[in-house]
Design brief:
By secondary structure, the protein is an alpha+beta fold. The protein has one domain: 60s Ribosomal Protein L30, Chain: A (2-Layer Sandwich), CATH 3.30.1330. Helix content is 37%, strand content 29%. The chain has 5 helices and 6 strands; from the N terminus they run H-E-H-E-E-H-E-H-H-E-E. It has a 6-stranded mixed β-sheet with strand order 1-2-3-6-4-5. Strand 2 and strand 3 form a beta hairpin. The N and C termini lie far apart (49 Å).
């Protein structure tokens, strides 16, 4: 009886291990700029179907240009990873001038197809990493299985 129990436990352990390994994808880090390693961050991290972009920034003082620059870069990076703006599930936005950003909401909206807006948090901050930056946006994406 003891041998049968040990064999069953061993078989169950092997099956569990195989299932865990198959459902536990590797994490892939993609650097876009040389300074990322110096500062200590990764621009894009993918773990399975989850894609996380570190803050994409743009200098000012032209907020319209900053919005188009940031969302254009995000769109481009997502495309390289088989995703689109419609796959964004969370957006965190930091700006040094919320009133200026609000005047350009329509510019932001055009990047999200058919109103597929993500959960979002927008904060006005005293400053960003570089003093000339006026906007920083980070997003989290779920890449559809079909892509």
């Amino acid at each position: 009886m003891r041998r049968i129990l040990v064999k069953r436990v061993s078989l169950v352990s092997v099956i569990f291990c195989l299932m865990s390994c198959a459902s536990n994808p590797a994490t892939v880090r993609t650097h876009y700029e040389d300074y990322e390693e110096q500062i200590g961050f990764t621009q894009v991290v993918q773990h399975g179907e989850r894609l996380i972009l570190s803050g994409i920034t743009a200098p000012g003082p032209d907020m319209q240009l900053a919005v188009d620059t940031v969302y254009g870069k995000i769109t481009s990076i997502l495309k390289q990873h088989g995703a689109s703006m419609g796959d964004v599930v969370k957006e965190s936005l930091y700006t040094t001038d919320m009133l200026a950003f609000k005047r350009h909401l329509e510019s932001r909206r055009k990047y999200y197809p058919e109103g597929s807006y993500p959960a979002a948090t927008w904060l006005e901050v005293k400053g960003l990493f570089m003093p000339e930056y006026v906007l920083e946006v980070e997003v989290e994406v779920i890449i559809p299985d079909s892509k």
